[in-house]
Amino acid sequence: MTEYLLIALALLGVLILGALGLVVPKLRRRPEPPLPREVETRAEEDLAGPPVLAPEAEVSTGILVEPPVIEAPPLEVPEPTAGRLVRLRSRLSRSQNVFGKGLLGLLSRDHLDEDTWEEIEDSLITADVGIDATRDIVDRLRERTRVLGTRSAGELRALLAAELVNALDPSLDRSLNTAPKDGVPAVLLVVGVNGAGKTTTCGKIARVLVADGRSVILGAADTFRAAAADQLETWAGRVGAETVRGPEGADPASVAFDAVKRGIETGVDTVLIDTAGRLQNKVGLMDELGKVKRVVEKHGPIDETLLILDATTGQNGLEQARVFTEAVNVTGVALTKLDGTAKGGIVIAVQRKLGIPVKLVGLGEGKDDLAPFDAVQFVDALLGTEAPGRDA
Ligand SMILES: Nc1nc2c(ncn2[C@@H]2O[C@H](COP(=O)(O)OP(=O)(O)OP(=O)(O)O)[C@@H](O)[C@H]2O)c(=O)[nH]1
Protein backbone atom coordinates (compact mmCIF):
# COMPACT_ATOMS: atom_id res chain seq x y z
CA MET A 1 0.00 0.00 0.00
CA THR A 2 2.76 2.31 1.02
CA GLU A 3 4.52 1.43 -2.27
CA TYR A 4 1.44 2.50 -4.29
CA LEU A 5 1.34 5.77 -2.36
CA LEU A 6 5.04 6.47 -3.10
CA ILE A 7 4.61 5.71 -6.81
CA ALA A 8 1.58 8.03 -6.97
CA LEU A 9 3.58 10.84 -5.30
CA ALA A 10 6.50 10.35 -7.74
CA LEU A 11 4.16 10.52 -10.75
CA LEU A 12 2.63 13.71 -9.35
CA GLY A 13 6.11 15.27 -8.95
CA VAL A 14 7.01 14.42 -12.59
CA LEU A 15 3.76 15.95 -13.82
CA ILE A 16 4.43 19.22 -11.87
CA LEU A 17 8.00 19.50 -13.16
CA GLY A 18 6.79 18.87 -16.75
CA ALA A 19 4.23 21.66 -16.47
CA LEU A 20 6.84 24.08 -15.11
CA GLY A 21 9.16 23.19 -18.01
CA LEU A 22 6.55 24.34 -20.52
CA VAL A 23 5.82 27.67 -18.77
CA VAL A 24 9.37 29.02 -17.88
CA PRO A 25 10.85 29.27 -21.45
CA LYS A 26 7.79 31.24 -22.51
CA LEU A 27 8.34 33.65 -19.64
CA ARG A 28 12.02 34.08 -20.66
CA ARG A 29 11.13 34.88 -24.31
CA ARG A 30 8.69 37.66 -23.40
CA PRO A 31 9.62 40.77 -25.56
CA GLU A 32 11.25 43.77 -23.85
CA PRO A 33 8.99 46.79 -23.42
CA PRO A 34 9.38 49.27 -26.34
CA LEU A 35 11.77 52.23 -25.93
CA PRO A 36 10.17 55.62 -25.54
CA ARG A 37 10.06 57.34 -28.98
CA GLU A 38 12.65 60.04 -28.24
CA VAL A 39 15.23 57.58 -26.98
CA GLU A 40 14.80 55.54 -30.13
CA THR A 41 15.35 58.60 -32.38
CA ARG A 42 18.48 59.64 -30.50
CA ALA A 43 19.99 56.21 -30.92
CA GLU A 44 19.37 56.34 -34.67
CA GLU A 45 20.97 59.80 -34.91
CA ASP A 46 24.05 58.58 -33.08
CA LEU A 47 24.58 56.03 -35.78
CA ALA A 48 23.65 58.11 -38.75
CA GLY A 49 25.15 61.49 -37.72
CA PRO A 50 23.15 64.72 -37.59
CA PRO A 51 19.89 64.70 -39.46
CA VAL A 52 19.97 65.89 -43.02
CA LEU A 53 16.96 67.87 -43.99
CA ALA A 54 15.47 66.90 -47.26
CA PRO A 55 15.37 69.85 -49.64
CA GLU A 56 11.56 69.82 -49.45
CA ALA A 57 11.84 70.19 -45.70
CA GLU A 58 13.94 73.32 -46.13
CA VAL A 59 11.52 74.74 -48.61
CA SER A 60 8.55 73.78 -46.55
CA THR A 61 9.77 75.85 -43.55
CA GLY A 62 9.62 78.98 -45.70
CA ILE A 63 12.57 80.44 -43.75
CA LEU A 64 15.62 81.63 -45.72
CA VAL A 65 18.87 80.80 -43.93
CA GLU A 66 21.31 83.75 -44.44
CA PRO A 67 25.03 82.84 -44.65
CA PRO A 68 26.95 84.22 -41.63
CA VAL A 69 28.42 87.70 -42.28
CA ILE A 70 32.17 87.82 -41.57
CA GLU A 71 33.01 91.40 -40.76
CA ALA A 72 36.35 92.77 -41.96
CA PRO A 73 38.44 94.10 -39.07
CA PRO A 74 38.23 97.89 -38.82
CA LEU A 75 40.96 99.80 -40.64
CA GLU A 76 43.72 101.12 -38.44
CA VAL A 77 44.64 104.78 -38.23
CA PRO A 78 48.45 104.92 -38.10
CA GLU A 79 50.13 107.41 -35.82
CA PRO A 80 51.16 110.71 -37.40
CA THR A 81 54.82 110.77 -38.42
CA ALA A 82 55.67 114.16 -36.95
CA GLY A 83 57.58 113.86 -33.69
CA ARG A 84 58.04 110.08 -33.92
CA LEU A 85 61.80 110.25 -33.37
CA VAL A 86 61.23 112.28 -30.23
CA ARG A 87 58.56 109.86 -29.02
CA LEU A 88 60.80 106.86 -29.66
CA ARG A 89 63.99 108.43 -28.24
CA SER A 90 64.07 106.09 -25.25
CA ARG A 91 64.49 103.17 -27.70
CA LEU A 92 68.03 104.42 -28.23
CA SER A 93 68.85 103.70 -24.59
CA ARG A 94 71.70 101.32 -25.45
CA SER A 95 73.42 103.91 -27.62
CA GLN A 96 72.57 106.62 -25.08
CA ASN A 97 74.83 104.86 -22.59
CA VAL A 98 77.80 105.25 -24.92
CA PHE A 99 77.15 108.80 -26.08
CA GLY A 100 75.19 110.47 -23.29
CA LYS A 101 76.71 108.83 -20.24
CA GLY A 102 80.07 107.58 -21.57
CA LEU A 103 81.27 110.43 -23.75
CA LEU A 104 79.88 113.26 -21.67
CA GLY A 105 81.37 111.62 -18.58
CA LEU A 106 84.80 111.47 -20.18
CA LEU A 107 84.60 115.05 -21.41
CA SER A 108 83.76 116.36 -17.95
CA ARG A 109 86.91 114.99 -16.36
CA ASP A 110 89.03 117.63 -14.63
CA HIS A 111 92.00 117.02 -16.87
CA LEU A 112 91.46 116.19 -20.50
CA ASP A 113 94.82 114.49 -20.94
CA GLU A 114 96.03 112.36 -23.83
CA ASP A 115 94.65 109.16 -22.25
CA THR A 116 91.20 110.68 -21.87
CA TRP A 117 91.17 111.78 -25.52
CA GLU A 118 92.14 108.26 -26.51
CA GLU A 119 89.26 106.90 -24.44
CA ILE A 120 86.92 109.31 -26.17
CA GLU A 121 88.19 108.10 -29.53
CA ASP A 122 87.75 104.46 -28.51
CA SER A 123 84.16 105.10 -27.41
CA LEU A 124 83.27 106.62 -30.77
CA ILE A 125 84.91 103.78 -32.69
CA THR A 126 83.13 101.19 -30.52
CA ALA A 127 79.85 102.93 -31.31
CA ASP A 128 80.58 102.33 -35.03
CA VAL A 129 81.11 105.99 -35.92
CA GLY A 130 84.00 104.85 -38.13
CA ILE A 131 87.69 105.78 -37.93
CA ASP A 132 87.74 108.79 -40.25
CA ALA A 133 84.67 110.42 -38.76
CA THR A 134 85.96 109.73 -35.23
CA ARG A 135 89.24 111.48 -35.97
CA ASP A 136 87.44 114.52 -37.35
CA ILE A 137 85.06 114.72 -34.40
CA VAL A 138 87.82 114.34 -31.79
CA ASP A 139 90.16 116.84 -33.49
CA ARG A 140 87.44 119.48 -33.60
CA LEU A 141 86.38 118.82 -30.02
CA ARG A 142 89.98 119.11 -28.77
CA GLU A 143 90.40 122.39 -30.55
CA ARG A 144 87.17 123.90 -29.31
CA THR A 145 87.57 122.83 -25.67
CA ARG A 146 91.11 124.29 -25.73
CA VAL A 147 89.90 127.61 -27.16
CA LEU A 148 86.88 127.84 -24.87
CA GLY A 149 88.87 127.14 -21.69
CA THR A 150 85.94 127.00 -19.30
CA ARG A 151 84.07 123.75 -19.57
CA SER A 152 80.74 123.60 -17.80
CA ALA A 153 78.63 120.45 -18.29
CA GLY A 154 76.21 122.43 -20.44
CA GLU A 155 78.96 123.79 -22.68
CA LEU A 156 80.51 120.37 -23.18
CA ARG A 157 77.17 118.88 -24.07
CA ALA A 158 76.54 121.63 -26.62
CA LEU A 159 80.02 121.16 -28.14
CA LEU A 160 79.63 117.41 -28.51
CA ALA A 161 76.12 117.78 -29.92
CA ALA A 162 77.30 120.33 -32.49
CA GLU A 163 80.11 118.02 -33.65
CA LEU A 164 77.84 114.99 -33.96
CA VAL A 165 75.20 116.96 -35.88
CA ASN A 166 77.92 118.31 -38.14
CA ALA A 167 79.14 114.75 -38.80
CA LEU A 168 75.57 113.80 -39.79
CA ASP A 169 75.39 116.61 -42.36
CA PRO A 170 72.05 118.20 -41.49
CA SER A 171 71.90 119.85 -44.95
CA LEU A 172 71.14 116.52 -46.70
CA ASP A 173 67.68 116.12 -48.25
CA ARG A 174 66.04 113.28 -46.33
CA SER A 175 62.55 113.48 -47.76
CA LEU A 176 61.17 110.31 -49.37
CA ASN A 177 60.23 110.80 -53.02
CA THR A 178 56.75 109.37 -52.80
CA ALA A 179 54.59 112.07 -54.37
CA PRO A 180 52.87 111.25 -57.71
CA LYS A 181 53.86 113.28 -60.76
CA ASP A 182 51.29 114.25 -63.41
CA GLY A 183 48.86 111.65 -62.05
CA VAL A 184 51.46 108.85 -62.26
CA PRO A 185 52.27 107.13 -58.97
CA ALA A 186 55.73 107.44 -57.47
CA VAL A 187 57.58 104.12 -57.32
CA LEU A 188 59.63 103.15 -54.27
CA LEU A 189 61.85 100.07 -54.49
CA VAL A 190 62.99 98.40 -51.25
CA VAL A 191 66.25 96.40 -51.38
CA GLY A 192 68.67 94.79 -48.94
CA VAL A 193 70.16 91.57 -47.57
CA ASN A 194 68.14 88.76 -45.96
CA GLY A 195 66.48 89.57 -42.69
CA ALA A 196 67.45 93.26 -42.66
CA GLY A 197 63.78 94.16 -42.18
CA LYS A 198 62.68 94.92 -45.76
CA THR A 199 59.14 93.52 -45.58
CA THR A 200 58.54 94.99 -42.13
CA THR A 201 59.89 98.37 -43.20
CA CYS A 202 57.80 98.28 -46.40
CA GLY A 203 54.71 97.72 -44.25
CA LYS A 204 55.72 100.49 -41.87
CA ILE A 205 56.35 102.90 -44.78
CA ALA A 206 52.88 102.11 -46.15
CA ARG A 207 51.52 103.19 -42.75
CA VAL A 208 53.66 106.35 -42.76
CA LEU A 209 52.29 107.27 -46.19
CA VAL A 210 48.69 106.48 -45.26
CA ALA A 211 49.12 108.53 -42.07
CA ASP A 212 50.25 111.41 -44.28
CA GLY A 213 47.13 111.09 -46.44
CA ARG A 214 48.56 109.17 -49.40
CA SER A 215 47.11 106.10 -51.16
CA VAL A 216 49.45 103.15 -51.73
CA ILE A 217 49.73 99.78 -53.47
CA LEU A 218 52.26 97.21 -52.33
CA GLY A 219 54.04 94.90 -54.75
CA ALA A 220 55.18 91.59 -53.25
CA ALA A 221 58.21 90.99 -55.48
CA ASP A 222 59.79 88.84 -52.76
CA THR A 223 58.62 85.67 -54.48
CA PHE A 224 61.48 83.70 -52.94
CA ARG A 225 60.21 83.55 -49.34
CA ALA A 226 56.65 82.22 -49.45
CA ALA A 227 55.55 83.96 -46.24
CA ALA A 228 56.83 87.38 -47.34
CA ALA A 229 53.82 88.09 -49.60
CA ASP A 230 51.38 87.07 -46.83
CA GLN A 231 53.31 89.23 -44.36
CA LEU A 232 53.09 92.21 -46.74
CA GLU A 233 49.41 91.61 -47.42
CA THR A 234 48.70 91.66 -43.69
CA TRP A 235 50.47 95.01 -43.31
CA ALA A 236 48.58 96.40 -46.31
CA GLY A 237 45.21 95.05 -45.17
CA ARG A 238 45.44 96.85 -41.84
CA VAL A 239 45.43 100.22 -43.58
CA GLY A 240 43.15 99.22 -46.44
CA ALA A 241 45.87 99.09 -49.12
CA GLU A 242 45.96 96.60 -52.00
CA THR A 243 48.78 94.09 -52.49
CA VAL A 244 49.80 92.80 -55.91
CA ARG A 245 51.36 89.37 -55.71
CA GLY A 246 52.27 86.55 -58.07
CA PRO A 247 52.41 82.78 -57.66
CA GLU A 248 55.15 81.41 -55.43
CA GLY A 249 58.47 81.40 -57.28
CA ALA A 250 57.17 83.83 -59.95
CA ASP A 251 59.58 86.18 -61.70
CA PRO A 252 60.01 89.10 -59.25
CA ALA A 253 60.43 91.53 -62.14
CA SER A 254 57.02 90.60 -63.55
CA VAL A 255 55.30 91.02 -60.14
CA ALA A 256 56.98 94.42 -59.72
CA PHE A 257 55.88 95.40 -63.24
CA ASP A 258 52.29 94.32 -62.53
CA ALA A 259 52.24 96.25 -59.26
CA VAL A 260 53.23 99.49 -60.98
CA LYS A 261 50.73 98.80 -63.80
CA ARG A 262 47.97 98.31 -61.21
CA GLY A 263 49.07 101.46 -59.41
CA ILE A 264 48.78 103.47 -62.65
CA GLU A 265 45.35 101.94 -63.43
CA THR A 266 43.91 102.64 -59.99
CA GLY A 267 45.54 106.07 -59.69
CA VAL A 268 47.24 105.61 -56.33
CA ASP A 269 49.91 108.03 -55.13
CA THR A 270 52.71 105.54 -54.42
CA VAL A 271 53.67 101.97 -55.34
CA LEU A 272 55.97 100.27 -52.81
CA ILE A 273 57.87 97.23 -54.08
CA ASP A 274 59.31 94.74 -51.61
CA THR A 275 62.11 92.57 -53.04
CA ALA A 276 63.65 89.31 -51.85
CA GLY A 277 66.62 89.43 -49.51
CA ARG A 278 69.86 88.69 -51.29
CA LEU A 279 73.47 88.28 -50.41
CA GLN A 280 75.56 91.03 -51.84
CA ASN A 281 78.18 88.51 -53.04
CA LYS A 282 75.73 86.45 -55.13
CA VAL A 283 76.15 87.74 -58.65
CA GLY A 284 72.98 86.05 -60.00
CA LEU A 285 70.80 87.59 -57.31
CA MET A 286 72.24 91.04 -57.80
CA ASP A 287 71.64 90.70 -61.56
CA GLU A 288 68.03 89.74 -60.79
CA LEU A 289 67.68 92.97 -58.81
CA GLY A 290 69.02 94.92 -61.77
CA LYS A 291 66.38 93.22 -63.93
CA VAL A 292 63.58 94.21 -61.50
CA LYS A 293 64.76 97.80 -61.81
CA ARG A 294 64.97 97.70 -65.63
CA VAL A 295 61.55 96.08 -66.03
CA VAL A 296 59.84 98.47 -63.61
CA GLU A 297 61.42 101.39 -65.45
CA LYS A 298 59.50 100.43 -68.59
CA HIS A 299 56.66 102.30 -66.85
CA GLY A 300 58.93 105.24 -65.97
CA PRO A 301 61.84 106.03 -63.65
CA ILE A 302 61.96 104.69 -60.09
CA ASP A 303 61.57 107.64 -57.74
CA GLU A 304 63.21 106.22 -54.65
CA THR A 305 65.39 103.14 -54.05
CA LEU A 306 65.65 102.52 -50.37
CA LEU A 307 68.40 100.29 -49.00
CA ILE A 308 67.40 98.60 -45.76
CA LEU A 309 70.40 98.13 -43.47
CA ASP A 310 70.38 96.31 -40.16
CA ALA A 311 72.18 98.61 -37.69
CA THR A 312 73.27 95.66 -35.56
CA THR A 313 75.50 94.36 -38.38
CA GLY A 314 77.74 97.40 -37.88
CA GLN A 315 80.62 97.92 -40.27
CA ASN A 316 79.74 94.72 -42.25
CA GLY A 317 76.58 96.47 -43.31
CA LEU A 318 78.68 99.10 -45.03
CA GLU A 319 80.28 96.61 -47.39
CA GLN A 320 76.82 95.18 -48.22
CA ALA A 321 75.57 98.67 -48.84
CA ARG A 322 78.39 99.51 -51.24
CA VAL A 323 77.62 96.50 -53.46
CA PHE A 324 73.91 97.36 -53.57
CA THR A 325 74.71 100.90 -54.65
CA GLU A 326 76.56 99.39 -57.62
CA ALA A 327 73.61 97.18 -58.66
CA VAL A 328 70.87 99.79 -58.29
CA ASN A 329 70.91 103.53 -57.77
CA VAL A 330 70.27 103.71 -54.01
CA THR A 331 68.79 107.08 -53.08
CA GLY A 332 68.19 106.61 -49.36
CA VAL A 333 68.94 104.32 -46.43
CA ALA A 334 66.55 103.01 -43.80
CA LEU A 335 68.57 101.87 -40.81
CA THR A 336 66.60 99.25 -38.89
CA LYS A 337 66.98 97.75 -35.38
CA LEU A 338 68.68 100.81 -33.88
CA ASP A 339 66.79 99.88 -30.72
CA GLY A 340 68.83 96.69 -30.47
CA THR A 341 72.34 98.14 -30.56
CA ALA A 342 74.71 100.41 -28.67
CA LYS A 343 76.25 101.30 -32.02
CA GLY A 344 74.06 104.25 -32.96
CA GLY A 345 77.14 105.88 -34.49
CA ILE A 346 76.61 103.68 -37.56
CA VAL A 347 74.32 106.41 -38.92
CA ILE A 348 77.34 108.69 -39.23
CA ALA A 349 79.49 105.98 -40.83
CA VAL A 350 76.82 104.97 -43.36
CA GLN A 351 76.36 108.47 -44.65
CA ARG A 352 80.04 109.23 -44.71
CA LYS A 353 80.99 106.03 -46.56
CA LEU A 354 78.10 105.98 -49.01
CA GLY A 355 77.29 109.64 -49.39
CA ILE A 356 73.63 108.57 -49.24
CA PRO A 357 71.32 110.11 -46.63
CA VAL A 358 69.75 108.02 -43.88
CA LYS A 359 66.08 108.84 -44.38
CA LEU A 360 64.35 106.52 -41.92
CA VAL A 361 65.29 104.71 -38.73
CA GLY A 362 63.64 101.58 -37.32
CA LEU A 363 63.33 101.69 -33.56
CA GLY A 364 61.34 98.58 -32.71
CA GLU A 365 59.08 95.82 -33.93
CA GLY A 366 55.88 97.79 -33.34
CA LYS A 367 53.75 98.85 -36.30
CA ASP A 368 54.63 102.53 -36.01
CA ASP A 369 58.21 102.15 -34.77
CA LEU A 370 59.71 103.74 -37.86
CA ALA A 371 60.71 107.39 -37.73
CA PRO A 372 61.77 109.93 -40.34
CA PHE A 373 65.41 110.72 -39.56
CA ASP A 374 66.41 114.15 -38.32
CA ALA A 375 70.04 114.84 -37.39
CA VAL A 376 69.39 117.32 -34.55
CA GLN A 377 66.64 115.24 -32.94
CA PHE A 378 68.74 112.10 -33.26
CA VAL A 379 71.73 113.67 -31.53
CA ASP A 380 69.46 115.04 -28.79
CA ALA A 381 68.16 111.54 -28.26
CA LEU A 382 71.65 110.00 -28.24
CA LEU A 383 72.92 112.48 -25.67
CA GLY A 384 69.76 112.33 -23.60
CA THR A 385 69.29 116.07 -24.00
CA GLU A 386 66.23 118.06 -24.95
CA ALA A 387 66.70 120.65 -27.66
CA PRO A 388 65.05 123.85 -26.48
CA GLY A 389 61.69 124.65 -28.06
CA ARG A 390 61.29 121.18 -29.58
CA ASP A 391 58.02 119.23 -29.46
CA ALA A 392 58.00 116.46 -26.88
N1 LIG B 1 63.91 95.35 -32.94
C1 LIG B 1 63.62 95.61 -34.21
N2 LIG B 1 63.30 94.59 -35.03
C2 LIG B 1 63.02 94.88 -36.32
C3 LIG B 1 63.08 96.21 -36.84
N3 LIG B 1 62.77 96.15 -38.17
C4 LIG B 1 62.53 94.85 -38.46
N4 LIG B 1 62.68 94.08 -37.36
C5 LIG B 1 62.53 92.62 -37.25
O1 LIG B 1 63.46 91.98 -38.11
C6 LIG B 1 62.95 90.71 -38.50
C7 LIG B 1 63.13 90.52 -40.00
O2 LIG B 1 62.28 91.41 -40.67
P1 LIG B 1 61.70 91.14 -42.14
O3 LIG B 1 60.95 92.36 -42.51
O4 LIG B 1 61.01 89.84 -42.25
O5 LIG B 1 63.08 91.06 -42.97
P2 LIG B 1 63.30 90.89 -44.54
O6 LIG B 1 64.47 91.72 -44.86
O7 LIG B 1 62.05 91.17 -45.29
O8 LIG B 1 63.66 89.34 -44.60
P3 LIG B 1 63.88 88.43 -45.95
O9 LIG B 1 62.63 88.54 -46.76
O10 LIG B 1 64.12 87.07 -45.39
O11 LIG B 1 65.06 88.97 -46.62
C8 LIG B 1 61.50 90.68 -38.04
O12 LIG B 1 61.42 89.92 -36.86
C9 LIG B 1 61.19 92.14 -37.74
O13 LIG B 1 60.20 92.29 -36.75
C10 LIG B 1 63.44 97.27 -35.93
O14 LIG B 1 63.55 98.44 -36.27
N5 LIG B 1 63.69 96.90 -34.63
Automatic annotation (TrEMBL):
Keyword field: Cell membrane, Cytoplasm, GTP-binding, Hydrolase, Membrane, Nucleotide-binding, Receptor
Domain of life: Bacteria
Pfam families in the record: SRP54 (PF00448), SRP54_N (PF02881)
Keyword set includes Ribosomal protein: no
Catalytic activity annotation: GTP + H2O = GDP + phosphate + H(+)
Span of domain SRP54-type proteins GTP-binding: 185-384
Comp. bias intervals (Basic and acidic residues): 31-45
Entry's localization field: Cell membrane; Cytoplasm
InterPro entries: AAA+_ATPase, P-loop_NTPase, Signal_recog_particl_SRP54_hlx, SR_rcpt_FtsY, SRP/SRP_N, SRP54_GTPase_dom, SRP54_N_sf
Enzyme Commission code: 3.6.5.4
Membership in a protein family: Belongs to the GTP-binding SRP family. FtsY subfamily.
Quaternary context: Part of the signal recognition particle protein translocation system, which is composed of SRP and FtsY.
Its biological purpose: Involved in targeting and insertion of nascent membrane proteins into the cytoplasmic membrane. Acts as a receptor for the complex formed by the signal recognition particle (SRP) and the ribosome-nascent chain (RNC).
Name of the protein in question: Signal recognition particle receptor FtsY
Organism: Micromonospora thermarum
